[in-house]
Design goal:
Order of helices and strands: EEHHEEHHHHEEEEHH
Helix content: 55-70%
Low-confidence stretches: none
Distance between the termini: 48 Å
Number of domains: 3
Strand order of the largest sheet: 1-2-3-4
Number of helices: 8
Strand content: 5-15%
Bound molecules: zinc ion
Structural class: alpha+beta
């Protein structure tokens, strides 16, 4: 259900990151600008408000993307859609790296708070003038974006930060399981709020979050099964240091049959093709099998 490259178009590229906007963003733009202009004497301020929200959300997403790169992960795309922004980040599968990639987004909003407060306080404009109201809006909007994202409802930033913190004591699978259970309760709470506030947007958001929570919970169960498989202690993934499972969990790229490259020195027993890189089932990194060998590496 997340926005993808389909249905969105590239707006610009900055620091190697493509910024896409989903088509539905424009309907929301027309709707919210027409709502906002009524609060101002000049309609230009309504449009400026919308642009400002766009920039605040974008800065937040850039925080995620750049932090993810800093810890050695990949991130090259940001998509803005009506439920906010999504930075496609793929940090290394370690709790610290994940935590920093997630926390950097809300941190941008925290850093913006004193700046926007100064602009509001000393930016000029008579009390209750359009200019003054606009600066107040910026400050309030940044605060709302910050608080909303910090809700511990997976996959919101707060929920993902909770997951990264639980990763230290609980491991990859059980931390995801715990965070999605908390997220599920939070999502149900949001539905309650949506009914109370009669807010369609909150309701749509709650159902969206719940659907991701549910999928991630299923994913956590699969991860847990993978974690519990018997392992080969003589090998370890060069990226995440996890030993590979014993069994036919790899597909031969030539004959498409399953085999265990660690039992056959990377040679497919069906067609004799040699796998030049072995993909880690735990972190997804593909490295030559030589690099997995603990005895060679530590020698
Ligand atoms: Zn975020
Ligand atoms: Zn084969
Ligand atoms: Zn790995």
């Amino acid at each position: 259900m997340s926005p993808t490259r389909e249905g969105s178009f590239r707006l610009f590229r900055l620091l190697g990151i493509d910024v896409h906007v989903h088509w539905s963003w424009f309907f929301v733009a027309i709707y919210s600008i027409s709502n906002r202009v009524q609060r101002y004497e000049s309609p230009v301020w309504g449009a400026l408000e919308y642009l400002a929200l766009f920039v605040i959300v974008l800065l937040h997403e850039f925080g995620h993307a750049l932090a993810c790169r800093q810890v050695g992960g990949q991130s090259d795309q940001i998509v803005l859609w009506p439920l906010g922004g999504v930075a496609y980040v793929n940090p290394p599968q370690r709790p610290g790296a994940t935590l920093w990639s997630i926390a950097a987004g809300p941190l941008v909003n925290v850093l913006l708070l004193p700046i926007l407060y100064a602009v509001y306080r000393f930016g000029g404009g008579e009390p209750d003038s359009d200019q003054h109201n606009f600066f107040r809006y910026l400050l309030v909007m940044d605060f709302i974006v910050l608080c909303f994202n910090l809700l511990p409802v997976y996959p919101l930033d707060g929920g993902q930060m909770l997951r990264s913190l639980l990763w230290y004591p609980l491991g990859k699978a059980r931390s995801l399981m715990a965070a999605t259970v908390v997220g599920f309760l939070g999502g149900v709470g949001l539905i309650g709020l949506a009914v109370w506030w009669r807010s369609i947007w909150t309701g749509v958001m709650a159902f969206y979050l719940l659907s991701i929570c549910w999928k991630s919970f299923q994913q956590a169960k699969v991860l847990r099964k993978v974690e519990q498989l018997p392992r080969r202690p003589e090998f370890a993934c060069p990226s995440c240091q996890t030993a590979p499972p014993v069994g036919n969990y790899w597909l031969c790229p030539q004959c498409q049959q399953a085999y265990d490259p660690f039992a056959t020195a990377s040679t497919c027993p069906h067609c004799s093709a040699v796998l030049d890189r072995v993909t880690c089932p735990d972190c997804g990194d593909a490295r030559a099998q030589r690099a997995w060998d603990v005895t060679i590496r530590d020698a």
